[in-house]
Amino acid sequence: MKIGIIGEGAIGRYVCKHLGPPHVLLVQPGKLNATAEDGAQRVSNVASVPADTDLMVDCAGHSALIEHGPAILERGVDLVTVSVGALADEDVHDRLLKAAKRGGARLLLANGAIGALDCLTAARVGGLSEVIYTGRKPPAGWKGSAAEDKLNLDALTEPAIHFEGGARQASLRYPKNANVAAAVALAGAGFDATQVRLVADPGIAENIHEIQAAGTFGSFSFRIEGRALPDNPRSSALAAMSVVAAIARERSDIVI
């Protein structure tokens, strides 16, 4: 399988480390002349991606998915992404869906920094009556986000909620922080029925994600304390691992 990667950040480097050099790197025009130690072909647009590419992997965030995703899917190339929050924008969602249908390709959503999504997807079949996602990060983890409009992050001495509402609103208001909320919504009750609570907590050092769900199946709760990648404190290690796992599933003859 010939794999192309969009972006060369912490997640992209992690994927390359575990899967080997990519077939092609889709990068910003200004980075075309950078030295590629892995020998990958560098291109700046989808039209230049080699025709024999089997799978593209978005490791560059919402803007890259919005810019390149439709063209990749229209070419009939499957695309793996962790930029799940971008789908909260209904226009973006529809553009990607229509492009996938035209190209006969699939947009594959990696689990990202959370688990239990398979359980949510199964529970959705029987009907979900409640899904609540709570995201807790140290105050520094919310810097540069809408949390700064609500809280003095440097002065917190106890946990403080800075957002409480639906998953669609959370995903759009926190594009760099709420991919997990979007993944939970898409796996379960949908953007408008999934409730989200975002918390800045000075008493923790890791990002904590919690899901509570109830329905005809019964109920469950799930909690994960996630660490960041060593070379980028804003990138979830589990999110990077989920990309590698998604690619491995595409390569595998037996899929779980």
Walk me through the structure.
This protein is an alpha/beta fold. It has two domains: 3-109, NAD(P)-binding Rossmann-like Domain (Rossmann fold), CATH 3.40.50; 117-227, 2-Layer Sandwich (Dihydrodipicolinate Reductase, domain 2). It is 30% helix and 27% strand. The chain is built from seven helices and 13 strands. It has helices at 10-19, 62-74, 90-103, 117-126, 167-173, 179-187, 237-251; strands at residues 3-6, 24-26, 41-43, 55-58, 78-81, 107-109, 128-137, 160-166, 195-200, 207-215, 218-226, 228-229, 232-236. The chain has a six-stranded parallel β-sheet, sandwiched between helices. Strands 8-9-7-10-11 form a five-stranded mixed β-sheet. Helix 2 (62-74) packs parallel to helix 3 (90-103). The relative contact order is 0.16. The model has no long low-confidence stretch (mean pLDDT 91).
